[in-house]
Amino acid sequence: MIKLENEGTESTALEAVVVRFVGDSGDGMQLTGTQFSDTSAMFGNDVATFPNYPSEIRAPQGSLYGVSGFQVHIGSIEVSTPGDNVDLLVAMNPAGLKTNLYAVKPGHTIIVDTDSFTKKNLDKAEYDSNPLEDGTLENYRVIEVAMSSLTKEALRDVQGLDNKTITRSKNMFALGMVYWMYHRSTEHTIDFFKKKFKSNPLLIEANTKVLNAGYYFSETLELIPNSYTIAPAQMPPGTYRVIMGNTATAWGFLAAAEKSGLELFLGSYPITPASDILHELAKHKHFGVKTFQAEDEIAGITSAIGASFAGDLAITTTSGPGLALKGEALGLAMMVELPLVVVDVQRGGPSTGLPTKTEQSDLLQAMYGRNGESPIIVIAASTPANCFDFAYEAAKLSLEHMTPVILMTDGYIANGSAPWKIQSVSEMAEIKNNIVKQAEENWQPYNRDEPTLARSWAIPGTPGLEHRVGGLEKDGTTGNVSYVPENHEYMTKIRAEKIKRVQNYIPEITAEFAEEGDVLVVGWGGTYGALHTAVKQLSDEGYSNIGFAHFNYINPLPKNTGEVLKRFKKIIVCELNSGQFAKILKINFSGLDPLQYNKVQGLPFGNDELVQKFKQLLA
Amino acid sequence: METTAQKYTFKDFASDQEVRWCPGCDDYVILRAMQKALPEMGVKKEDVVFISGIGCSSRFPYYMDTYGMHGIHGRAAAIASGVKLANTDLSVWVITGDGDSMAIGGNHFIHVLRRNIDLNMILFNNKIYGLTKGQFSPTSSVGQKTKSSPHGNTQPPFSAGELAIGAQARFFARVAGNTPKEMTQIFVDAEKFNGTTLIEVLQNCVIFNDGCFTQFTDKTVREDKQLHVEHGKPMIFGKNKDKGLVLNGLKLEVVTLGENGITEDDLLVHDAHEQDPTLHQMLVRLQYPLVTGIIRSFDDVTLEEREDSLTEQVKANSNFVKTDDLFFSGETYKVD
């Protein structure tokens, strides 16, 4: 049962709503958005979030490039993207309004802090005249609130607060207003204050006061004509929490370490947007996690190779430029056939590119960015929550097949958050390993397991199994250096075959919505939410001839890939690059000539652009 | 590190691989010294790991019947750091050369020393790139003619010890490539030292840089040209044991015993354990005499010890034992 907080006022039921909070990078927009999405998730809504912030930590106040935003999509239906069109924009300053107005659908609502629309701020936002007065916003429902003054007023009786603290808490006034509009309780956020400001009761009092002031202001305000309800979504029963993609990735490795009985070692060098995985794992020394912040990307991966040689579950985390630096070492890991997971949280490239923006342009680098022929497993997560599953899967495949695995995520799913149905480690798939516990007769380091071709893993400290590995070509059995021409060709083939055989251990690909038909939409990795939503919309509209196949396994591809592709007349590969996965499909399936839909703007796909494109194809 | 009652001989540490260095190379001396030193260390064979980079010296692990990895150029120190942090019971050795450690691997070299991870590094310094057939290295002298400096090298060299101590090395030793007895003892002492050790071996390259250290290491001159320091002993050298070092202002000075009333009591007494590296740096820089032996050996907390105690502390204050405890903690909600 939905308990309405403000029974009696006129309220409209909505299926889903998109709210975007924007302001200066110091305005606390990330916190405000996170609170709104957490509260909504706890209420039972499905949620998807997307932070959008500048790479400058504190860009000049009021400037256009210093705008920080946080978008939340909540729904009583399945929500798998943060949404492209904004139903409610909360703009804390003119620069925020200017840079985000494009996303608001005409007729929808904008809340502005009128106190910030000063001449100075308007100049900084490059407005010639005040948009609140010159008709710019005449197609929108604008709620003008003197938020800064009202915040000050709310805190008049609280002694001992400095001006900075007072000004900074105006984001909570905005949050209070939004809570009222969508029938959200303030309880979760007040609990949050109690925890966050445990050592400073004054801040608990102040923030609570401002939050409540915003809430009651909306309730009594006639400017807000109605409020909206969004019923809880239908979700599989279980215990949930809202999780960010990077956190989910980190936790997937924690689970894999526990399940495999190995200690987790992370060698890493800070890089946006991957650093949060390092931050998260660094917290968990209580599980025996070893995090080693290395001197550079190369030491990040090579220390992990050392840890793997010594018997740890070893991982390294990075983003595009870092993956480039790790290339040579990744070749070593492949050559010595040790388990290792490399996480590439993709960002806009090439070179330094767009560090805080999202893209899928590292795919070919992950596949081929090494000298010589050096195949490794490449998999990709597709939602914030399933970063957990694919981190676990990456560790499992790497240990069971004795090979490096690249796990690809991207800035969009890594920083986005969504409800995660918590999995208990006891219910997760077993993880085997290839460790040789004691000396066996005729043991050789390159003895292989027949079905997987994984070599055995003898760990220093084990008597009688002393052996040497290295980057020089190895003899196929002993692992000693070998320059024999036939052996090199044999080893090249074995290394390729070993990765190919992984096909026997991964799920087949399925086409959703239609098993055969006119158009198959193909995607991979972090674009799942956008593509799924678009195809589902068409399917709901009655199109029965469009299917959707989304790939999490890139190398090797699922065994039945060719067969599924054949069942459709047209294939359109959609990706946030110029067509890298399309290339991979073409290499693998001769004669295949897929259509492409590409976007390289540092931004995720929007729903409307996809729907429009697919409709054209179906016409 | 666990010690063993089992007695090994040097043969136990020789692998079945044919050694492929040039005849007459000092690398053979180093290999033999290591195979002789290991039985004296009391470590178990299965606990010994050799990690190397790329270069002539880096073939070393293949010739040792222990665990080993021949890594990639310059990265041995980083690989070894991971090995040691994964299993602190292991005796970890880095084998590297002057190019491997101070050119392509310079970053890892300084950072491993700074962190003080309990591992040992043997730097084979022959002032040349051997395996790539004779280019100048970061320790080559100015004016040195090599394949890549046919008219003479214009890049001033690093001194390995100076760089290492500048990077906070707690242990630095230098030994000539033709003194196996001293070398063996230094390897044993390095293993006993708790922290990162750097042993610079002055190694002759018979093909590309023959005689590069002869002025200090030739049998006919070495007693007069080298001062082999020992902790707690006065700094005496010379065939006749009549030369010594004193401190004159901020400079080291060579004096002759018996001249100007100088006696042994006036000489500097080597204190390898001193935390302040000033005098150690002066000894490292000295060209006459060239100082060999353990120049610096300052006992300090290792990275592993810091990490271990922090981990114990975090564990003691945490309610999380299993990952489920974390996953189900904090803000969760139920959907029925």
Automatic annotation (TrEMBL), chain A:
Keywords, sorted A to Z: Oxidoreductase
Pfam families: POR, POR_N
Stretches assigned to the Pyruvate/ketoisovalerate oxidoreductase catalytic domain: 26-215
GO BP annotations, alphabetical order: response to oxidative stress
Highest taxon above the source species: Bacteria
Entry keyword annotation includes Metal-binding: no
GO molecular function terms attached to this record: oxidoreductase activity, acting on the aldehyde or oxo group of donors
Stretches assigned to the Pyruvate flavodoxin/ferredoxin oxidoreductase pyrimidine binding domain: 265-473
InterPro entries according to UniProt: 2-oxoacid/accept_OxRdtase_asu, Pyruvate:ferred/Flavod_OxRd, Pyrv/ketoisovalerate_OxRed_cat, Pyrv_Fd/Flavodoxin_OxRdtase_N, Pyrv_flavodox_OxRed_cen, THDP-binding, Transketo_C/PFOR_II
UniProt xrefs under Gene3D superfamilies: 3.40.50.920, 3.40.50.970, Pyruvate-ferredoxin oxidoreductase, PFOR, domain III
Annotated coiled-coil segments of the chain: none
The keyword Oxidoreductase belongs to this UniProt entry's keyword annotation: yes
Protein name: 2-oxoacid:acceptor oxidoreductase subunit alpha
Source organism: Flagellimonas nanhaiensis
Automatic annotation (TrEMBL), chain B:
Region annotated Disordered, chain positions: 140-159
InterPro entries in the cross-refs: 2-oxoacid:Fd_oxidoreductase (IPR051457), THDP-binding (IPR029061), TPP_enzyme_TPP-bd (IPR011766)
Highest taxon of the lineage: Bacteria
Coiled-coil intervals, chain numbering: none
GO molecular function: oxidoreductase activity, acting on the aldehyde or oxo group of donors, iron-sulfur protein as acceptor; thiamine pyrophosphate binding
Ranges of biased composition (kind: Polar residues): 140-157
Keyword Oxidoreductase attributed: yes
Residue ranges of domain Thiamine pyrophosphate enzyme TPP-binding in the record: 54-201
UniProt keywords, alphabetically: Oxidoreductase
Record-level GO BP terms: cellular respiration; small molecule metabolic process
PANTHER family: 2-OXOGLUTARATE OXIDOREDUCTASE SUBUNIT KORB, 2-OXOGLUTARATE OXIDOREDUCTASE SUBUNIT KORB-RELATED
Protein name, UniProt field: 2-oxoacid:ferredoxin oxidoreductase subunit beta
Organism: Flagellimonas nanhaiensis
